[in-house]
Amino acid sequence: MNYPQFLELLGWLATLTFATSGALLAVQKRFDLVGIFVLAGVTAVGGGSIRDLLVGSLPPQVFRNESVIWAVLLISLLVWRFYGRVSRLDRPIYYLDTVGLGLFAALGAERGLTFGLGFWGCIFAGTVSGVGGGILRDVLAGEVPGVFYRNRDLYASAASAGALVVFIIYKFFPSLAALALLLGATTTIALRLSSRWLGLRLPTPKP
Amino acid sequence: MNYPQFLELLGWLATLTFATSGALLAVQKRFDLVGIFVLAGVTAVGGGSIRDLLVGSLPPQVFRNESVIWAVLLISLLVWRFYGRVSRLDRPIYYLDTVGLGLFAALGAERGLTFGLGFWGCIFAGTVSGVGGGILRDVLAGEVPGVFYRNRDLYASAASAGALVVFIIYKFFPSLAALALLLGATTTIALRLSSRWLGLRLPTPKP
Amino acid sequence: MNYPQFLELLGWLATLTFATSGALLAVQKRFDLVGIFVLAGVTAVGGGSIRDLLVGSLPPQVFRNESVIWAVLLISLLVWRFYGRVSRLDRPIYYLDTVGLGLFAALGAERGLTFGLGFWGCIFAGTVSGVGGGILRDVLAGEVPGVFYRNRDLYASAASAGALVVFIIYKFFPSLAALALLLGATTTIALRLSSRWLGLRLPTPKP
User: Fold this and answer.
1) pLDDT in tens, A123-151
2) How many contiguous H segments (helices) and E segments (strands) does chain A have?
3) Do C140 and A145 touch (CB under 8 A)?
4) ∠ at Cα C36 (C33, C41), nearest 5°?
5) Under an 8 A CB cutoff, do A149 and C60 touch?
């Protein structure tokens, strides 16, 4: 397995983990089967689709390569059928979700660069790729989007930091471009894990 | 009245029914007059506009033929003025809404095909045309989008099934293309009505 | 300072005021630092970005001139650091917000005209430019979008009226085009202020 294949494999893992988290929430909210599929799909591909909308690349990527949707359908059926067992997989899901966040953020920032966005455009494209699906999931399920909410592990900010690393490498160290995605994703993953393991938090002001 | 005119008439009826359902919710939520108009409009044309955004057909159709917005304005004024009487029209509104769902889903799937979307793209374009307006309506009114929620009549899934029928006919039975819209819409309507009359439900897993 | 510079200055003031209102809500909701920045940014540029999405001008303006985002970052840091003092500035923030609403609505309507939208398209472009950011802010913070809600000062409707004035002047009094923005903005501001000072309200029907 070479390097691009390895990245693609990780990208798939990320998508499927995000789909699983959407499907699990849908079951908790007692959505029916189609609702589970929709929430799983929105969580998995929503972030990338918002990014594609913003850079003007329409229709979004997901509708040009639909194999990912078939995979989301499979995940939805599995979660529906084996809810009890899947929902006990907290820990592996957490780690896959972290890897997914890192990869989506790095790939989103790269896509922003491809479409000629500037500094904040790339940060935004990376961050929204990473966290947009989760935000749509929470809004559709009637919850405050957890991504901003108080006192959690670093999440959106970890994605932003990864996108920032990708941007900096492409702009200032083009000789390292081959490594940009990997370094960006690693940054996001490292930040999120250190926030879990070391209790690292962003400051929250008192109102 | 020939067949295209008949379809267009139904399409108008569908739009106006959706507008009515938005306006009624706005009155219940004590929105003011502009809020009623906005919620009616979003419900009536929101689904089609999300679809147009996704296929990259901008500005959305509604801004190229604005007569529909004048009609929504009229509906809003009527609902505002005659709230009591309109809100008692539950049953006819339910049937018109069902017809509207079927027509929007079929027309949305056809539009997806026109713009070169694949299988899931067409299903999505059809479904979001049918249910997108209602989702926006619920989010803007601060409710969990009822479309996914537990134990209701088939709704999003009925729309998806209708879009599926349109897709299959266009792809595999092109000689029947003239009937595709009608058969798709009929599928959606039949599924929704049988869910109401026969208690047909999608399975909802227990969390 | 000439007239275009004066308008641009007001536009900046408007953006910064909107950013401040987003940042203040984020602090009240106990968002962390990144959440504050995101909510401030969405409030400041969300309306204009929805408008750009709808007219098909992608990527949105904000990603082509990023200085506004740096300013939003600065505002977020200031609100975070000086929350107590900023939150007591109710009254100046209210007036700046009113000026901002008027300017955004007028500028949005003009942009709609530039992209060839018709009557309702321009009204919508103007209104969504003015109030879209606040709607996104409220949805992301888990609140019913205050913009529609009962018994408040005129807000969305004031923005629509301003956009209407811009549209009418451009279409029917082209010789006054240079004044269109100013007259539109003034209409919005005058309506909102008279609703505050005189208790002017839109009718709200009883459900």
Assistant:
1) 999 999 998 888 888 877 777 666 655 44
2) 8, 0
3) yes
4) 130
5) no
Residues whose CB is less than 8 angstroms from the CB of residue A62 and which lie 6 or more positions away in sequence, other chains included: A45, A48, A49, A68, A69, B120
For every one of its 207 residues, what pLDDT tens digit does chain B have, with 9 covering 90 and above?
A: 676 677 677 778 888 888 998 898 888 888 888 888 989 999 999 998 888 888 888 888 888 888 999 999 999 999 988 887 777 777 777 787 788 889 899 989 988 998 889 999 999 999 999 988 888 888 777 776 666 554 466 788 899 999 999 999 999 988 887 789 889 999 999 999 988 787 777 766 665
CA distance C154 to chain A (A): 27
ipTM over 0.95: no
Handedness of CA A16, A17, A22, A26 (dihedral sign): positive
User: What tokens appear for B133 in the block?
Assistant: 């307006």
> How many beta carbons lie within 10 A of that of residue B44, not counting itself?
30
Which residue's entry shows tokens 């990259």?
Answer: B56
Task: Output the CA torsion B140→B141→B142→B144 (10° steps).
Answer: -90
**C-alpha angle A19-A24-A29 in degrees, rounded to nearest 5:** 125
Query: Which residues contact residue C127 at a Cβ distance below 8 angstroms, ignoring those fewer than 6 apart?
Result: C105, C108, C156, C159, C160, C163
Cα C99 from chain centre: 9
SS3 B32: coil
* pLDDT tens, chain C, 207 aa long: 676 777 677 778 888 888 998 898 888 888 888 888 989 999 999 998 888 888 888 888 888 888 999 999 999 999 988 887 777 777 777 787 888 889 899 989 988 998 889 999 999 999 999 988 888 888 777 776 666 554 466 788 899 999 999 999 999 988 887 789 889 999 999 999 988 787 777 766 665
**For residue C115, which residues of chain B lie inside 8 Å, CB to CB?**
59
Sign of the CA dihedral A56, A57, A58, A60? negative
- Chain-chain contact of B55 with A60 (C-beta, under 8 angstroms): no
Compute the distance between CA of residue C49 and CA of residue C133 in angstroms, rounded to an integer.
9
Instruction: Answer whether B125's CB lies under 8 Å from B109's CB.
Output: yes
What is the torsional sign of CA C46, C37, A132, A167? positive
CA–CA separation, A98 and A24 (whole Å): 17
Cβ–Cβ < 8 Å for A62, A69: yes
Q: What is residue A150's predicted lDDT score, i.e. its pLDDT?
A: 45
Q: Which residue has the tokens 């930091």?
A: A161
> Is residue C147 within 8 Å of C138, Cβ to Cβ?
yes
Residue to substitute from C148, C150, C188, interface B, most B β-carbons within 10 A: C148
CA distance B2 to chain C (A): 30
Question: Going along A19-60, which residue ranges are E strands?
Answer: none
Of the candidates A182, A180, C121, A197, the residue with the CA atom closest to the CA atom of residue B67 = C121
Non-local CB neighbours of C25 within 8 Å, separated by 6+ positions: C39, C43, C137, C141
Q: Within a 10 A sphere around the Cβ of C90, how many other Cβ atoms?
A: 10
- The dihedrals phi and psi of A69, each to the nearest 5 degrees, come to -75, -35
Q: What is d(CA B136, CA B134) in angstroms, rounded to the nearest whole number?
A: 6
| Segments of B88-188 assigned E as strands | none
What the block records as the tokens of C154 is 């005129």
Tokens standing for residue B52: 């147009």
Q: Following CA atoms B165, B166, B171, B177 in sequence, which dihedral angle do they give, to the nearest 10 degrees?
A: 120
Instruction: Report the distance separating Cα A199 and Cα A202, nearest Å.
Output: 10
